[in-house]
């Protein structure tokens, strides 16, 4: 499927289909959001405004837009449709996790975010 290590390049929907991520050679960024604006009942009074990285632990980054945000970086192709040694950032929680990617089918990417070792994590299934 990905003998050259480029099988994951391109556009991917997250498991919930509320976000689309474009994966490049060593990183990925958000290029589409189902709801790019905060809803009318937003708890923080940001109704109708573009979604920002407000959960970021760094206060200086909390106003940056989520649209266009680079959330994946540092991956290396390990062979056998597997990319490791990268990180993935979750803007909903403001946390960065170690990450492993496995191209389990031509149009299915298994994204495993974890703390410490892969055993302590969660896998999300992305589709093209």
Describe the protein's architecture and organization.
The protein is an all-beta fold and 128 residues long. The protein has one domain: Lipocalin (Beta Barrel), CATH 2.40.128.520. The protein is built from no helices and 9 strands. A hairpin with a 4-residue loop joins strand 6 and strand 7.
The assigned structural class equals mainly beta
Q: Report the sheet-strand fraction.
A: over 45%
| SSE string | EEEEEEEEE
Q: Taking all residues together, what is the mean pLDDT?
A: 95
Tell me, briefly, the overall form: globular
Q: What is the CATH level 1 assignment?
A: Mainly Beta
The major β-sheet equals:
9 strands, antiparallel
Rounded radius of gyration (Å): 15 Å
- The tally of strands reads 9
Give the CA-CA distance, first to last residue: 14 Å
């Amino acid at each position: 499927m990905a003998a050259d290590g480029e099988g994951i390049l391109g556009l991917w929907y997250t498991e919930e289909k509320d976000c689309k991520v474009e994966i490049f050679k060593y990183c990925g960024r958000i290029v589409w959001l189902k709801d790019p604006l905060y809803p009318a009942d937003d708890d923080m009074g940001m109704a109708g405004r573009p979604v920002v990285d407000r959960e970021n632990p760094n206060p200086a980054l909390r106003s940056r837009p989520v649209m266009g945000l680079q959330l994946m970086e540092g991956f290396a192709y390990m062979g056998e449709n597997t990319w490791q040694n990268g990180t993935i950032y979750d803007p909903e929680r403001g946390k960065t996790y170690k990450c492993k990617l496995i191209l389990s089918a031509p149009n299915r990417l298994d994204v495993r975010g974890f703390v410490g070792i892969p055993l302590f994590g969660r896998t999300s299934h992305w589709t093209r």
